[in-house]
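Checklist before submission:
- one chain only
- standard amino acids only
- sequence pasted in full

Submission:
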Amino acid sequence: MNTVLLVEDSLTDAELMSRYLKQLGISVVCVRSGEEAISKLGFQKPDLIVLDVILPGQSGFELCRELKKNPVTSQIPVVMCSTKSTEVDRIWGNMLGADAYLPKPVDPQQLLTVVRQLIKL
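Returned file contents:
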């Protein structure tokens, strides 16, 4: 079974995205901050990371850059999701290594299409 690490501080958004991902038969591990994500990644490597941009402490942009620079996590696809959805934000996310950038509220079909492509379901 494929696993997604969902890094989202909004309980509502986390619940919705978890529900969408579970429809594909994906196991979802939810955390609420970059610190928690790094901790989880220390003992469980997911097939994909869905990452909010605005998080407590370390931003999603900073976390994405850290993940992509680390040889242990650099090959894990990252999907960034945010209300910050200007073209500049998308470009910045891509420059930091994000494999996809989705605006919030997340469209379920768009999320599932991107996830299918990135983990080859």
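Reviewer check: The mean pLDDT is 93.
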